[in-house]
Write a structure and sequence with these properties.
Mean pLDDT: 78
Largest sheet: 4 strands, antiparallel
Order of helices and strands: EEEEEEE
InterPro entries: 6-blade_b-propeller_TolB-like
Oligomer: single chain
Number of strands: 7
Strand content: over 45%
Number of domains: 1
Radius of gyration: 11 Å
Strand order of the largest sheet: 1-2-3-4
CATH class: Mainly Beta
CATH topology: Thrombin, subunit H
Number of helices: 0
Length: 82
Amino acid sequence: MGVVLDADGDLFITDIDGHRIIRWGPNGAQCLVGYSDTSGSEPHKLYHPTVMNFDSFDNMFVVGSDNQRVFRNSIWSPILAT
């Protein structure tokens, strides 16, 4: 499980076995990606996300270890793009 704290103080967690990214903030938890709790290769699904980070433009980068992809997307967009 990877954990990242962003500039706003929100905590982002990679749920490896749940195949999703969760954001914890002042308003509670929100699942950003991987809503169905199943893995896959579609743009909105992850397959064992292991590492994540942000760049200076608030783009989120996530490594899906079992489908060997790097996902990049803004944290404000609901679906990750490859």
